[in-house]
Amino acid sequence: MQSLIRQNLHLESEADINKLINTKLTASYTYLALGMYFDRDEVALPNFSSFFLERSIKEREQAEKLLEYQNMRGGRVLFQTITKPIKENWRGGLDAISFSLEYQKALNTSILEVHNRASSHTDPHLCDFLEEHFLSDSHDTIKKLGDYVGSLTRLTSSETHGAMGEYLFDKHTL
What we know:
Blueprint: H1 11-39, H2 46-72, H3 93-120, H4 124-156, H5 162-172
Helix pairs in contact: 1-2, 1-3, 3-4, 4-5
């Protein structure tokens, strides 16, 4: 049955939103795995753990915003399988933050693709929604992660004191 409130929501945009929902839920799951990795007893970097758990919550909240948006526009939510994280162990904080930076860039690209398609279908409402709720946060996160990679690279570059640098980054930066 067709929605009574659906207007100017192209079928491709509806599919793109569903795909983005799945991408955001997968990202939440991936950040959850990162948070739990740093909470393990042999790793024990609590602020790294908290940072990634907060990112997990943020990604899940964004998925929920997309779910609500899809319903508000008269689209149909199509749930898909959430894939397990592509990586489960990291060599340390720098490896995890670098992974997160590349992952966040891929998430940003997904948002931009949905935005471009919505723009090509003349859907200013979806474009505005993505700009307001997703793109700014995505760019801010990329900047923060990039800064963290730079700091961690400098702090961990010493072979003799690299682990201490990671510990201090955990205590004083995150």
